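Figure-free illustration: sequence to structure, shown twice.
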Amino acid sequence: MSNSKLEQAKRKYAEDLRTLRKQKGVSLDAICTETKVIKTVLEEFEINCLHRNNRFNKVYLYFLVRSYAKITGLDGDQILSALYMALDGSYDGRLSPDYKPKEKPAKLAESSTKKSANTSEPNKGASPPKSDKRTRGG
C-alpha cells in the first residue's frame, strides 16, 4: 500500500470525526477537559489522526478514540472499527454523513441472494439422510 493512500485514509478518518464532533455540538475544550489530553494533541488528531507523530502508538490511539467517542456520544465500536480501517489505509469515509456504500455488482448480488434463499430452507431439495446400519433390524 502506498504511503500517500495510508495518509489519505487517516486524514479522511480524522476529518470525519471532527465533522461528527461539531455536529454533536461538543467542543474540543470539552474533550480536552474530560480526557486530560492537551488541546494541541487533539487538534493534531483531528487533522491527521496523529499519523506523523511517532510518540502515539496504536494502543494510545485506541484509548483516545474510545474516549473521544464516549464524550461525543458516538458509537465507540463503529468509531474504533473505522480507526482500524484508517490505520491499514482502507478507510472509505463510512463515518461521513454523506457516505453511500458501494453497491455490489449485479451478478455478485444475485448469487448472494440465491445463497441466502437456500440457507433459509436447509433441507429443500436435499436428499434424505442415510440411515445408520446399526439401527436397522437385521
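We now fold a second protein in the same way, so the two outputs can be compared directly.
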Amino acid sequence: MESAQQVIEQAISSLDRGEYSQVVQQLSPAYQRYSDNDEILVLLAEALTGSNRSKQALELLSRRGEDSQVSADVLFALGDEYFAGNNQPQALICYRRLLEFPEACAEAWVRIGLISLAEDDISQAKSCFQKALGVDPETLSAMNSLGDLCLDEEDFSEAQNWYKRALEIDAEDSEAWSNLAELYYAEGDVDNAQKCARQALKFDQQFAPAWLMLGYVALDSDDEDQARRCLKQFLSLEYSAAATDIIVEVKAVLSALKGS
C-alpha cells in the first residue's frame, strides 16, 4: 500500500500536467484511507474542480471546514472555491477566519483584497494588499495585485515596478511574468509580451492567462493556427466563474476563426 506522502507526490506530478480526471481516480480511494489528511483533501478538491466537478469539491471542503480544528490549507481551498463560484460572502468568511493563523495572515489579506476588487472597492483592495505586505514584505501575490491596480489605471511604470519587484524575490513567479506580458501588450510591445508569456509557461504550463496572451499575440500576427491552439488551451485551464466574460469572448473569437 502506498504511503500518504507517495500518493501526494504522484498527485502533484499529475496535476502539474493537467491530468485532473486521473488525479480524481488516484485520490478518491486514497482519501478514504487517509481521511484526516488535509493535503490529500485539498489536492482532490483541486482535481475535482479541474474536472468540472466543483460542486463535489465544495461539498468535501465544506464538511472539513466545519471542524473547529480546520487547517489553513483547507480554509484557503474552501474560500477559493467559493470565490471562483462568485459566492463572495462565504469566501470572505473563510478568509477572515484565516487572519487568526499567523502563517496565513498575509495571503488572507490578499484574498480579502481581491474580494474588495471584485466589488469595485479599489481603495479597500489597495489597503488590503498593503496590509499583506505589512505582515510579510515578500508576499508576491500582493505585489502582483498592486501592479494590476496600477495597470488598470494605465500607470505602466509603477505596474512594472511591482511586477519586477516580485521577480526579484522569485524569478520563477509565473504570475509576475504573465502580468508583465499583459503590460507590454497594453503598451503595444508585442515581442516582449510574447517573451514574458513564454517565460510564465516555462515555469507553469498550466497558467491560463499566459496562454490567453499568446493567443492574442498570435492573432495580431495573423497566425490563426497558433491562436486556436493557445486559446483552446486557455479554455481547457480556465474554469473560474470570475473569468466568465473572458471565456465568452475567447469562445466567440474561436468561433470566428473556425468560420474564416
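Summary for the second example: The chain has a mean pLDDT of 93.
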